[in-house]
Amino acid sequence: MADSNSIALHTIDYQRLNELYDGDNEQIASLFELFLDEVFPDFGEIENEIERQNWPEVAQITHKMLPWVGMVGLTALEAKLRTIEAQAKAGSARDEIMVTWSQFKLGLNQSMPIIREELVKLTS
């Protein structure tokens, strides 16, 4: 049986989106678009800082990115990002942080086509 956490990593939490935006599809579409165009590219900064083992910067960037992940309904990824932030603040080993980062990045990359598809549906 697959790990339930890995299954949920690339799914959109529609219940959370409805709670946050009260079913306002225009607002959801706007946030999806902003996330894809402006926020998604910034995740590369986290990987760069992990490579440099610059833990204070990793913690700062992940903390800054956390709300965005939640605002587009990527709840499971939000939890992974919180873990990375906590690991960076605790000065965990690079390999430990890289494992969590790899899981997050895989889920994020799998989520992008889903968000793009939803954006098309919401704006058609």
UniProtKB/TrEMBL annotation:
Membrane-crossing ranges are none
Which InterPro entries does the protein's record reference? Answer: HPT_dom_sf, Sig_transdc_His_kin_Hpt_dom
Q: In its UniProt record, which GO terms are filed under biological process? A: phosphorelay signal transduction system
Q: What is the protein name given in its UniProt record?
A: Hpt domain-containing protein
Positions where Phosphohistidine occurs in the chain: H63
Species per Swiss-Prot/TrEMBL record: Spirosoma telluris
Q: Which UniProt keywords apply?
A: Phosphoprotein
Among the GO molecular function terms of this UniProt record, one is: protein kinase activity
Q: Check the record and name the Pfam families matching this protein.
A: Hpt
Domain spans labelled HPt: 24-124
